[in-house]
Amino acid sequence: MTAKEVLELAKKHKAVMVDLKFVDFPGTWQHFTIPIEELTDNVFTEGSGFDGSSIRGWQAINNSDMMVVPDPTTAVMDPFTSAPTISMICNVVDPITRENYSRDPRHVSQKAEKYLKSTKIGDVSYWGPEAEFFIFDNARYDQTSNSAYYYIDSDEGIWNSGKDGTNLGNKPRHKEGYFPVAPMDTQQDIRTEMIIEMAKAGIPVEKHHHEVATAGQAEIDLRYDTLTKMADNMMMYKYVIKNVARRYGKTVTFMPKPIFGDNGSGMHTHQSIWKGGTPLFAGKEYAGISQLCLWYIGGILKHAPALAAFTNPTVNSYKRLTPGFEAPVNLAYSSRNRSAGIRIPMYSPNPKAKRIEVRFPDPACNPYLSFAAMLMAGLDGIENKIDPGHPMDKDLYDLEPHEAAKVKKMPGSLDESLRNLEKDHDFLLEGNVFTQDVIGTWWTYKREKEIDAIRLRPHPYEFFLYYDV
Predict the structure, then answer these.
(1) What is the pLDDT of residues 125-160, one digit of tens each?
(2) Cα(259)–Cα(153) distance, integer angstroms
(3) Residue 355 three-state SS
(4) Whole-angstrom Cα distance, residue 88 to residue 72?
(5) Is the pLDDT of residue 61 over 60?
(6) Is 359 an active-site residue?
(7) Is 457 a catalytic residue?
(8) Contacts for 240 with CB less than 8 Å, ≥ 6 apart
(9) Is 343 designated active site?
(10) Is 268 annotated in the active site?
(11) Is 338 noted as a catalytic residue in this protein?
């Protein structure tokens, strides 16, 4: 869609407002809105100004003037505004230099796509994330100097099986929520409405279903697309899901581990590289993949401990990514085997379907940064012909201790992931895709705003363990 076509779309739907969205450093959409009369040709070329000093991880207050430049190809009618409103995703630009802002995550993903082309390895990468989330009926939480608590609830939660009053049973037990039909799956209609709204926003969906955990865990899978486009789609995905849930008086979280004692939410990420319309991951090696694909896997496995800083970017991520449980912590690859950190799906013999599935990311990640980082790791594997080792076709959750010790694992904490990123990030700097400023700001922000913030606060369970010492 061009700028002219955006104006035609606005006229067709009698739009009165234009919502300009952009993503902050950690990965949450921000926005401001202008009247349709303000959407001139200059906005598409020069941009619209805003104060960047209050955006997480961005400019200091003494250098805070910034511009957003809308991308007309992202224009859709916003499905949740009462007044007809055009929604567009924007790039962030420095008003003085007119250059793209280096800390704009969308700019990082666009540079990664350009870098892929510059290597001559391929001309496009395709991405297909499978984001999981919880739909709760209630979510309360607070932290004061003398108290801390959270309380989440769902009518589906197995803990409500004995609840007094009207109780119709049929609640998924822990780890038994995968694929049940109604009445146990109470959220068929909510998920369907989410898909309908995504379709209005031009986002194709492959399937939806209840996920493994109790209490309304769900998954909606998007049809694959190119890197930046898929990151855009993931932002709209979260926007749609959260707002549809609110229509139903419910609330959604993409926290990786909101429930103790049950499965967390991951975001298995399918990826492949093509060139000239030809899939480069198909071949005659193990599981029908190419030598190039094996090297790509080698790059992902080698850099996974550093990638985790972007793909599993919260303290809570490591409540899910925990060794000893059914979590994708094993740095190995296999066909069909979901206990390996990288799986090669075998659903179809068609070369166009050949891809890898990286299983350790979670939906708390910033998709622009995490997709870009994984692509850079895979390209490093190809360029340096990194051997991924032998595939692991056995159940990696059921190994003898001496066997398990030989399999490398993902980091066990965000702090460990950031330390790995400090030691191993040269591959991200290739082509100036990530800058030293972006990487340094990332680990500083995560340590100061998240790790230290949690480290300094007593945990409620500590009182259970230690109050009577």
Answers:
(1) 999 999 999 999 999 999 999 999 999 999 999 999
(2) 10
(3) coil
(4) 7
(5) no
(6) yes
(7) no
(8) 79, 194, 197, 198, 201, 203
(9) no
(10) yes
(11) yes
